[in-house]
Amino acid sequence: MITFYERMSDLFAEGTPFVCATIVDTQGSVPADVGAKMLVTADGAYFGTVGGGKIENRVIQEAKAMLKAAGLVGTSGKEDAIARFFEWSLNRDIGMTCGGSMRVYLEAFNHRAWNITIFGAGHVGNALINLLNKLDCRITCVDSRVEWLDKLPESAKIRRVLLSEMKQFVPEIPRDSFVLLMTMGHSSDKPILLEILQNWKDVQFPYVGVIGSDAKAARLRKDIAEAGLPDELSKVYYCPIGLALGSNHPQEIAVSVTAQLLQVRDAIVAASASVDADAEAQSSVSIEKS
C-alpha cells in the first residue's frame, strides 16, 4: 500500500508544486482527527483527506489559491503565500451541520520551480540537459527526432515533446520559462524565434537564447526585419549564448550556457528582492505619515 509520504516524495521528485494540508487542532464534532493530512496540486486533490465534503473542498480551494499566489510571488519571500493557518467554524464558515471547529495548516512546496524549455535534443542539447538535470529545475525538451529525445536521461524533471513543427509548442511554454533554441540549424531555429517575437508584447520570457555565431546573429536580425517586426526585438534574446569561457566541445558549451542561465536567474531574483524592499519601505513611510 502506497503511503502518504511516498506520494509526497513522488511530488518532490517530479518537481510538481503542491500544498500539504494538516489538521492541527479540532474542537467539538468534526469529520477528521488531528493529524489528518492531504496533498493538493494545481489540479486539485492528489492524495489523502481532511474529512471530505465541504471542509475538504474549502481546503482544496485555499490550497490552489496559495499555489497560484506562490507562483506569482516567485522568490520574493512573501511567507503568507507559502504557509498559512486557517481556523474555521464548520457551521458558520463552511456551512456544515457539524458544530465543531478546525485549525488547518497549509504549506506550499516546489512553488519556486525553475522552468527551462529547450528546443533541440542534439549533441549540445543533450549535454546541457544532462547538466541542468542535476540542478533544481524542470526541463521541457522539444524536438522532431524521436531518436534524439530517447537519448535524454530518464528523470522525473524532464519532459519530452515530439513535434514535427516545433514552433507549434510556443503557446505551451510557461510564461516564466527560460527558453533556448538549439535545433538542427538556422532553418529550424528561425520559425520558433519569430513565433516567440511575434507574441512578445503579450508574453515576455525572462530569457531567450539562440545557439549560433555572430554570423547567425546577423542573419537573425535580417530575418526579423524581413518579417516586419520592430528592430528592438533583436535585443530581447541572446545570440551567441553562454559566457565567454571554454571551447566548442558540447560539454563545455553546456557549462558556459548553464553559467549564463544562473547569472540571469540570480539577477532577476536580486531585482525582485530590491523591488519588494522598496515597496515595504514605501509602505512603512505611508504608515508613519498617516
Overall number of structural domains: 2
What CATH first level of the largest domain would be assigned?
Alpha Beta
Poorly predicted ranges:
72-80
Distance between the amino and carboxyl termini = 59 Å
Q: Strand order across the biggest sheet? A: 3-2-1-5-4
- The total strand number stands at 10
Q: Average pLDDT value?
A: 89
Structure characterization notes:
The chain has 290 residues and is an alpha/beta fold. It contains 7 helices and 10 strands. It has a 5-stranded antiparallel β-sheet, with helices on both faces. β6 (115-119), α3 and β7 (138-143) form a beta-alpha-beta unit. The chain is elongated.
Features:
21% strand; single chain; Rossmann fold; alpha/beta; 5-stranded parallel β-sheet; 5-stranded antiparallel β-sheet; 290 residues
